[in-house]
Specification:
Elements: H1 3-8, E1 12-13, E2 17-18, E3 21-24, H2 27-38, E4 43-50, E5 53-60, E6 65-72, E7 77-79, H3 89-99, E8 102-104, E9 146-151, E10 163-169, E11 172-179, H4 187-191, H5 196-203, H6 211-226, H7 232-260, H8 267-285, E12 294-295, E13 298-299, H9 305-331, H10 333-339, H11 347-353, H12 357-361, H13 369-372, H14 393-417, E14 434-441, E15 446-453, E16 459-465, H15 472-478, H16 487-494, H17 499-502
Parallel strand pairs: 2-14, 3-6, 7-8
Antiparallel strand pairs: 1-3, 4-5, 5-6, 9-10, 10-11, 12-13, 14-15, 15-16
């Protein structure tokens, strides 16, 4: 039995939670788990609120297992995890904003999502409060010759809103502090009481460039709760969609990073190739972003022969185009001068925050949910997880390049071995409350979904966690010592989601 399960076993195991253990624990065990987090024994996967309780999802990487600890908050408080483990701090601030639960001895008690503009405060608490508006106190920085540069939340171009407060000495960044929350949409409130079908639609709209990853995580969580599995063909079609989504985003990012390094030579061909991926997705599944194609129980669209042929043609086109694009990137000295050594994300910090995706793998953390916690169809496929240790913009570009190559191979394998069969199964009415947890690999990293269904099969609680929760803080550290003008380059190389963390 994995070590994490042994620890959780001292709590009260919930039999209605699948596929991993969820245990109701006391404050002492909660604090012990937080201490073990701080010591690096576990990795924090999620921390979220509920009606009178908090939940903490942990990864036991050695045992290849996930467990959830739940603590009742009888007096509306809980021991702060962030006091010992910094990656929990923004999650705790969010719990307070949404549920009014207070982390005791938390090092940062400022609001995160609530900007004082909501009609109520603590909207998901049993008793919401009156609106609360107060000036936001950015963290102070002391020293001679320092000045602040405030950027955003409105930016040039069509991008999401976020505020970045730079403290600089000349051009060198001494500190960056982010403030997000501007695109909060109340997703968790909308999920409560929704049907599974409505929840699937909402999940696929949390973050537009990751609609497949979110829909897949939600679907797998619902299926785990109900104890059902999608048909084999549906699982392989889901994998095909996930790899097309990964290809579109990685290819687009490679060109965009180069453009932010003042090298637009690669932006256009990457944009053209990304467009070809989206058109192949539309030919295969009837929608460019494959929105609403993955639902609990299966998929809503089959892959027609013409669509399969279009995707195969895309693979051939991409494989023919990649060598020249890579040669241009690797052989342009002025471009390498901008990307190599810039925006270094320390491996120890990446490991501590549990950064996934290309951010983690470019700094030596090789976690990939498809490999560590395998799920169909990846458990039957051959692929490598590229891991580098450079930790800079250049390494994050190279991980993307290598993952594009792996995804092309995965797409070919899935097309060659696609099983026949039905596209979906009917979902049963549970008859009693049940819960499910899922972790899937999106293009940015691992996406977590927790779903609780009531006896009638409606959503009682749903929490979706984007990989960017653990990447945004590391970006703050990675920019230190760089010049302000390199922030767009560093920021794009991380490509963290705004909407994904604004719920």
């Amino acid at each position: 039995m994995p070590a994490l399960f042994n620890v959780l076993a001292s709590g009260r195991i919930r039999p209605d939670h699948r596929p991993w253990l969820r245990a109701e624990v006391d404050a002492a065990l909660w604090c012990a788990l937080a201490q073990q987090l701080a010591e690096g024994r576990w990795t924090l996967l999620g921390l979220w609120g509920d009606a009178g309780a908090v939940h903490m999802a942990l990864l036991d990487a050695t045992g290849g297992a996930v467990g959830v600890a739940s603590l009742a908050c009888a007096d509306g408080t809980f021991p702060s995890v962030g006091r010992l483990h910094a990656p929990a701090q923004r999650l705790e601030r969010t719990i307070t904003d949404l549920f009014g639960l207070t982390p005791v001895d938390a090092p940062d008690t400022r609001p995160w999502l609530d900007h004082g503009r909501w009609p109520v405060s603590r909207p998901l608490a049993a008793r919401p409060g009156a609106p609360e508006a107060a000036p936001y106190a950015f963290l102070p920085v002391e020293g001679e010759g320092l000045h602040e540069v405030a950027v955003g939340p409105v930016h040039a171009g069509i991008i999401e809103p976020g505020h970045f407060r730079f403290t600089a000495n000349g051009e060198a960044v001494v500190r960056l502090e982010e403030r997000l929350g501007y695109v909060h949409r109340g997703v968790e409130g909308l999920m409560a009481g929704a049907s599974v079908a409505q929840g699937a639609a909402l999940a696929g709209r949390v973050c537009g460039d990751s609609t497949v990853a979110y829909a897949l995580a939600f679907a797998r969580a619902v299926e785990a709760a109900l104890g059902v599995a999608a048909p084999e063909r549906a699982q392989w079609l889901r994998g095909l969609m996930a790899e097309l989504e990964r290809l579109a985003n990685h290819i687009g990012d490679i060109g965009a990073v180069c453009n932010d390094a003042a090298f637009p030579r690669l932006l256009a061909p990457c944009a053209v190739l990304r467009e070809q991926v989206l058109r192949a997705a539309e030919a295969g599944f009837g929608q460019r972003m494959m929105k609403d194609r993955i639902v609990p129980g299966g998929v809503t669209a089959d892959l027609a022969p013409a669509g399969a042929a279009r995707i195969r043609a895309l693979v051939s086109t991409a494989r023919a185009a990649l060598p020249e694009l890579i040669s241009i990137y690797d052989g342009t000295a002025s471009l390498q001068d901008r990307t190599a050594g810039t925006g270094f994300a320390r491996p120890d910090l990446v490991a501590r925050f549990g950064c996934g995706g290309f951010v983690g793998r470019a700094s030596g953390r090789g976690f990939d949910a498809r490999r560590v916690l395998p799920y169909a169809p990846y458990d039957a496929l051959t692929f490598a997880v590229p891991v580098l240790d450079g930790g800079d913009v250049n390494a994050r570009v190279w991980v993307r390049i290598k993952e594009v190559e792996q995804s092309l191979g995965l797409v070919t394998q899935m097309l060659d071995r696609m099983p026949e069969g039905p596209l979906g199964v009917d979902l049963p009415v549970p008859g009693a409350p049940c819960e499910g947890l899922a972790l899937v690999e999106g293009f940015r990293g691992d996406v977590l979904a927790f779903v609780r269904l009531d006896a009638e099969g409606r959503i009682a609680r749903c929490h979706l966690r984007d990989p960017s929760w653990f990447q945004w803080p590391v970006l703050e550290a990675a920019i230190e010592g760089n010049i302000i003008a390199d922030f767009p380059l560093c920021n794009k190389s991380f490509n963290c989601a705004y909407a994904g963390v604004d719920l």
